[in-house]
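Bug: token stream looks shifted between consecutive jobs. Job 1:
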Amino acid sequence: MGFSTTITEIILLIASVVLASGVSAQAIYAGMSLQSNILQTMDCAKRDLNIRISIGYATINETVTPKYFIIYAKNTGLMPITDFSTIDVYVGEYGRVILFTYSSNATIGSGSFSLTTADGDGIWEIGETAIIKAYPSTDINAPIYEVKIVPFRGIPSSYLFPPPP
């Protein structure tokens, strides 16, 4: 009787050690998974803050018909921008802007915008100013205009301006 009790206790002890090891391994896995998710979220937030565009000046080219917008913007973030199709440009009468999407061959009246970097290499480097030309599909005529540049997962910039005198 004493021997079977000892065997039973040993079996229960081994089973409890195995069970405790399994629970502890699951807890460590869950902790590491949570830490990985937190680090990934922090990395995405940091990347989002590293993309920033500031509008320096905006005007209207009235020498052609239909008129179009010319916007000078600087990459004030901490990362170069290479994919211009992820940038949204909203321009138009104050309170009634129109979305313009990027097109490398945007032309007058196309309803899209083109972006040319200062050095022309197609990479919007940190601190570099780019020229954005937004071509509306309709004629523009308002007392005050608004432009907003919104990079994908970045900090947007807004600017109000009157038409040229």
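Job 2, same session, no restart:
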Amino acid sequence: MKIWDEMQEKGLIEQGCILKAGEPVSSSFPPELKKHLAVAKQSLSYIFRSVGKTGKNYNEAHMEIGDKHFSGYLLSDDIILICMCSYGANQQHLGQFVEEKKDNLLAVARTNFALE
């Protein structure tokens, strides 16, 4: 089972994407949601770059675009997980899942292969 399927079946996300050095290496976003991904990618990348300059150690950011909630997780210096969720999704469960699967998510980014 791919990581996106698992996260969707658990009701944690609607779509997800892993960025490495700002570029998608794995994504479940369909073509009709590419604009949403582009805005989230740009915004979350900016947030994490800005926070890094302050010396703070934040690795999670959340924002809303329209009726969707986006969560970003800084998995390493150049790897960001972007999750699109429905409004009201349980962010605590999503955060726990990301923490539990962090090594698997990093492996996807480092190998550029979809996680099976």
